[in-house]
Amino acid sequence: MPILLPILLALACAPLAYVAGRWRTGAAAWMGALGSLAALGALAWEWTLGPGRLVLPWAPSWGLSLEFTRDGLSGLYSAMALGVGALVVLYSRAYMPHHLHEEGRPARDEVRFQGLILAFMAAMVLLVTVDDLLLLFVALDLTTIISYLLIGFDREDPESRAAALLSLVLTGATSVVFFAGAMTLGLHYGTFSLPLVIERAAHDPASTGALVCLAVGALGKSAQVPFHFWLPRAMAAPTPVSSYLHSAAMVAAGVFLLQRLYPLFAPATGVRDGLLAIGFVSMGMGSLMALVADPFKRVLAYSTIAQYGYALVLVALGSEGAPLYVAIHAPCKAALFLTAGAVTQVTGKKKLSEVGGLRHSLPVLAGASAVAAAGLSALPLTAGFFKDEVFFHALAQRGPAFMAAGLVGAGLTLAYTLRLWWGLFGGPRRDVPAAPRLLVAPVAVLAGTILLGGVLPGLLVAPARAAAAAMRGEPSTLELAYHLDARAENLLAVGAWVLGALLFATRRAWTPALSRVLEGTSRFGPERGYRLLLHLLDRLSTWLHEKEVRDLRDRVASVMVPTGLLGLAVLGVTPLRDRFKVGTVGWADVTLVMALAFASAAALATLRAKGHLRLVLLISCVGFSLAMVFAFAAAPDVALTSVLVETTFTLLFAGLLALLPPDRLQHAQEEAQKPRGRDRLAAGVAGASAFLLSWSALSHLQADRVGARTVELAKAAHSPNVVAAVLTDFRGLDTVGEMTVVVAALLGVTSLLRLKGRR
Amino acid sequence: MISFVPPLSRLLLWPSLIIALSLWMKGGASVGGGFPAGALAGLAVLLQYVTAGRDQARRFVAVRYAAPLAGVGLLLVVGTAFLPVVAGYAPMSLFPRPDQPEIGVGGLHLHTALIFEGGLMLIVFGLVVTVIDRFALRTGGEEEESGP
Amino acid sequence: MNLIASLAVGLLFACGVRMVLERELVRVACGTVLITNSSVLLILAGSFPERGEALSVEQGWPVTDPVLQSLALTAIVIGFAVSALLLTLVHRTQRAHGSLRTDRLVEAELKRVHAAEKGEGR
Amino acid sequence: MPLWGPLLLPWVLGVVLAFLDGRRAWVAWLAIAGLAGTLGCMVWLLPQSWGAQAPQFISGDWPVGVGIRLRADQLSIVFALVSTAVLLGTLVYEHVAGGITSRSFPALVVFLGAGLTGVFFTSDAFNFYVFFELAMTAAFALASYGERPRHLRAAFTFVVVNLMGSTLFLTAVVMLYLTTGTLDMLSIIAWGQAGEPYALLVPGTLLLCAFGVKLGFFPFHFWAPAVYRDAGPTVAALLAGALANIGSYGLLRFGVDVMPQVMAQARPLLEILGATSILYGTVLALSRRDTREVLAYASISHAGLIIAALGLNGREGLCAAVALALAGSVDKTALFLAQDRGGERARRAYSVAAFSTAGVPPTAGFWAKAWLLRAALEQGHTLLAGLVVLASTLSLLALFRAYQREPWLREGAALHRGTGAVVYALSLALIVIGLWPEPLLRAGRDAIQGLGTLP
What we know:
The complex is a heterotetramer.
Chain B: H1 5-26, H2 34-52, H3 54-57, H4 61-64, H5 66-82, E1 103-105, E2 108-110, H6 112-138
Chain C: H1 2-20, H2 25-45, H3 66-97, H4 102-119
Helix pairs in contact in C: 1-2, 2-3
Chain D: H1 5-19, H2 25-49, E1 56-58, E2 69-71, H3 74-96, H4 105-121, H5 125-143, H6 149-180, H7 185-194, H8 201-215, H9 223-230, H10 233-258, H11 260-286, H12 291-311, H13 315-341, H14 344-358, H15 364-378, H16 382-405, H17 407-411, H18 417-435, H19 438-447
Antiparallel strand pairs in D: 1-2
Helix pairs in contact in D: 1-2, 1-4, 2-3, 2-4, 3-4, 3-10, 3-13, 3-18, 3-19, 4-5, 4-10, 5-6, 5-10, 6-8, 6-9, 8-10, 9-10, 9-12, 10-11, 10-12, 10-13, 11-12, 11-16, 12-13, 12-16, 13-14, 13-15, 13-18, 13-19, 14-15, 14-16, 14-18, 15-16, 15-18
Family (chain C): Belongs to the CPA3 antiporters (TC 2.A.63) subunit C family.
InterPro entries (chain C): CPA3_antiporter_subunitC, NUOK/Mnh_C1-like
Membrane topology (chain C): Multi-pass membrane protein
């Protein structure tokens, strides 16, 4: 049960904050932060209890249960989500009032925002704790839904609405693909429970198709090429959203999935090689874009794409440092995002080219963000150093080409981080008002954590090992320490610093050329493809809509013609086609046939009838002829009824004609009889089909019908007239229903033709 | 022509109604039943509308309250169908039951089917008369409806 | 007999469909009446081969299937009720659109659709 | 609770309401109370339906075939429950949204409820037709509710096209009787097992087309966009949420239960029609400007999903069809009602129902779609699985484009507390089922348990 405690506390945060917010707007953030810290405390306590699992019944029909796990991976990611979450919520207390004021929205909306952030945090904790494929997907889509609401929080802003929709569709679509993969695996192994799936997969590796589906879901979430383009657009969201979702939470979910499911991927070298390639491409693309982007949130977004590329490479290589990498990256990136938000709030600017020289006015922020930047670019004495160490370690085992790629990547990271920090704080002095303390404090806390990790790397070893063990299913031997020797990792790190510094120093020389090249290539990117696809679908949709049936006639024909064709086809291809019986016509039938002929003639004549009155008379002529048919067919009850109905109906029709304005009738009449060829064809198909289908049915008459039994029982029903007995007694329920139909029609008539006035 | 049609139609009304009633009563034994009875009675009233006009036709209570009459008819029908369930019978059990003796006065058999058919008659009468009445009311130009 | 009866059913049905496909409300209503008639005819056509005395319970007489008769009666009544409703609807629709022609209905509908498609813009 | 309870209550209530003026508040509340009572009766009946012997009676205690048999097995009761609940929600909505403007509205809604209950409970083919007509006639009369020209236009289209469908259905039932000599469904099943496999093909074809018109899948759907767009929002919710259930129920009852041999032959056709409907509906929904039209096309694609599920071989497909129909019914009602007036609560309800329609957890629609996906993958039908994934994505896009485009997003018009409560309740039901799917899964699994001869 203690496994649930952090989850329950995390789930309780949002409602508690909401309630607190109802009391006083400012209280929501503190309540939320308190709740998440409590959850963090519970997590730490639980950590001391060692690994465990909890299974609760859920949906036995599908053999599903709520399965939670407590292992290194879930602990590490939960701690990350809860810790950063608490800081971001506090930060938003200082950030949102200003933001809402600028957007012209009521200050109360701040509570809604914080509630959503906390809900997202809960979803994230849920995601990393569950131990079931279906539940993984459920939690994954929960994060998608809440991120949609968060990214589109500024709902007046068309750009942020579009960004929200883009991220919803892209991450939603990829997660549905993930679900298809999960379903395939679940069906294949006969369970959705993750430990069982992994156990069974050890003997019977998962199919490549399913793994690719799972990987697509993860790539979409982690904003990797080719699904990366939603992330830069999502920067339209308020900064706390970016700093949480796009550093520690949402994008981490994708890589987390791959780590959680790593045992499935381990034997599939082909899929892993593909992931490796995607990781390197994302790394390169993200880093290069980060080098030229101007809005500083975009720089950070591209950097996130690149950094998760690193993490992807680590997972694909099966390195035990993969969870650690994500966990160290998160506070660095979150701190930088928070810095960016603070700078925007203080200066009102969003682009690197518009700010600079803020180190004098915002000294604490500058210092703290310098630590975060150092962490991101893996300088020693920060925790970030170790994220690159494990990275280089993994690459070094694969060979020089990989090492070179890693070196370039790390060099680029340093270059764009320097560019960002220098762009914000370096350069000629500029004075701005001081930032609110609450805006700076979370950055400082994060910076402190990064420093602590850098100075005392021993603290990181235990969680990193536990997480690696959970990911790879074998005990980990990960070592984190500073070694002052010439091992490959150290050489690569030094090489990367040199490269980064060189790139930064010479930035004016290559920036314009690089931006031109990148601009050129973006024309062929996946974003362009996505837009083109959407555009084509839109055009197809509009074209179909224009072509679609609008006329009542075509709507009727669209029912009758397919039915007719289907009926003809059924008669044409099945053995029914040989079984038509012509039947015999004796002398006794002559009257019947004549009456039928009369009815048919009258029906045909209606088509030629010019005037409405003549039309109505011909229709009633059909009816009376049919009544005659019924009389000759020894069905006097039906005959009597149909005579009376026909009479009433003719009079009603006449009444209707009297109601209609004569000029309109005249006008309609002139226009009416211009049949289109396809109307004739439709009627022909429908009629032919009706003819053949009824002929077929009449050829298969069952001689022994229930009707005979009713005749026997009529006496018991005290009714000499069998038809009356059937109507009122045997099938009386039909008659009750039929009479209710009449009353319902009557209600319709009375409401359509109301006594007094209209409406 | 105009002079003798209205009196004639008024004269015809009562015989038609009596025929309708007999159709109803004899429904269990021979051709007839509630539906033709109701339609016939409706037709008789329709004749009044055609010849004497709406105001004259609405002298009869049954015509003015035709629509509620249909409701009463439906109550009768549903009641006959479902009241037996109170006594533990299946719905649509009519009395006398198959094993019970018939109760009859002369050629007329008393049977709950009669009530059932009576309900039918009222419903059909109500529909026919109401539709006619509403059509008659609307005849003679009215303003157009407009709006989107 | 089968052939003749089903021919008549097919013909009535074809005429009905043809009428429903006309451009005018009254004719559409007439068409539905014809279609209903054709299905009632089909119901009773099932009892043509063995038709006999409907009212007799005496042994040995051929009897027209009473179940089919009652189905036909029910179908007639329901058809009547629905047609009455359709007639009033014809009246109201023509008053609302100022025309008996179905093309006017289409025009009015298209106008609304295009207003919706354009009005909101991108 | 005897079986006739949930049938009798709305019936009698409908008759009583026919006398009263539905515009008065107490009359509307009476109708609401009656429908709620019906719902209660059905819930009461629920355990009996799950018992060894489904509750049944034969009218007048006549022998089987002569009298009409009514029977409430699991399939009947779950459809009846959901449809009545949807009707109840819609009626409450219309009443609290500003009052009913027509005298006969509550009576007609209750008659619609009686007709639907009868359709779901009856075990007699012709009685099915009669109840079907009762529901249809009530819907015909309701379709013009509001009585503006566009409502009348929608009503006219609806009536004429659906009359064709009803005629097809009547013809099919008569042919069934002529061929098998009985109208009792269980007897027809017995006949079909003994008889030749092709004999029921003709009525089967007509039934497919008739229910196609009701459910609105390609190519029988062309009436649907116009009617759903032009009819009043409440009416559209009634038609799409409750009445369309007749189509899915009818296909399950007649296709799977009564004529499994015909169904076996129709499978390829159903798959093609289903796939076409899914594609057609989703693509057309994509760039519509009018939210109602988006919803109309989304419901066409949803109908396609149901058909495709029926077309799959084996049990799981049928379970998926039941789950899709039930979840879709609530989804569509919530969507049509929520888009009516706007406001914060309606927006939230809309987004929940939209997520459910697109199959995003944690909503009921997710489980239904998951079931379809599961059935498709189990059968190795990757093409259909891909189609489901594509449809989910595109409908997500289409529904949320509409969500963002609507003026409500900007204005956030104040919504009446009561209407908000109704749409909230519907979306809450979707979420609760999403979080605890066992009832839906049980319903889907058990509903097809007693049907015909399954492979």
